[in-house]
Amino acid sequence: MVSGSRAGRRRGAPDTKGEILAAARVEFGEKGYDRASVRGIAARAGVDAALVHHYFGTKEKLFLAALEIPFDPEAIAARIADGGLSGLGERAARTFLSVWGDPDKRAPLLTLLRSAMSNEAAATMLREFATRMILGRVLAAFDGLPDARLRVEAMVSHLFGLVITRYVLQLEPIASTSDEDVIALVAPVLQAYVDSAIAEQ
């Protein structure tokens, strides 16, 4: 009796989704987002590309699932960028703290951050995520300003420094200082990158 199943396609076994995610992490880590392909990920996982699309829909959604990002990056980028340049520093600080201050979001993010510090593939994935999913949207708010990308990346470096001291190293007193007090300290520094760019126009 001839089977009606399509040759080369493995149906969704209980661990198939996990195998696709594992293959995606390797593929994205080795090749980056642009060069990685759904077909390549499917081949590495030993499944049809159609099964990858069935589970994850799009390459972008697969990328986010592989990273295990516990928030919607478009919504986060919009919270920072929408509203223009005025108050952008405060919105950036407040948004970062709202995400990292949530224990359910912080745990997977800390895992990713620690992995990126010691593993090049994880660092590549985190860099691709930050550049593609968040920085691009925030950069749009800087349209036409001098050294826009450098300024945005300097803001990000401040925010990740805050994350490391507050949530990884847990240095006191910054670790136990209230969000509002931290925002009051950090927001003017972040806003200075914006205001100095406006002044240089």
Tell me what the structure shows.
The chain has about 200 residues and is mostly helical. It has two domains: about 15-65, Homeodomain-like (Arc Repressor Mutant, subunit A), CATH 1.10.10; about 75-200, Tetracycline Repressor, domain 2 (Orthogonal Bundle), CATH 1.10.357. Helix content is about 75%, strand content about 0%. The protein is built from ten helices and no strands. It has helices at about 15-35, 40-45, 50-55, 60-65, 75-80, 90-100, 105-120, 120-140, 150-170, 180-200. Helix 1 (about 15-35) packs antiparallel against helix 2 (about 40-45) and helix 5 (about 75-80) runs antiparallel to helix 6 (about 90-100). It is globular. It starts with 15 loop residues before the first helix and ends with a helix. This is TetR family transcriptional regulator. Keywords: DNA-binding. InterPro entries: Homeodomain-like_sf, HTH-type_TetR-like_transc_reg, HTH_TetR, Tet_transcr_reg_TetR-rel_C_sf, TetR_C_16. GO terms for molecular function: DNA-binding transcription factor activity; transcription cis-regulatory region binding.
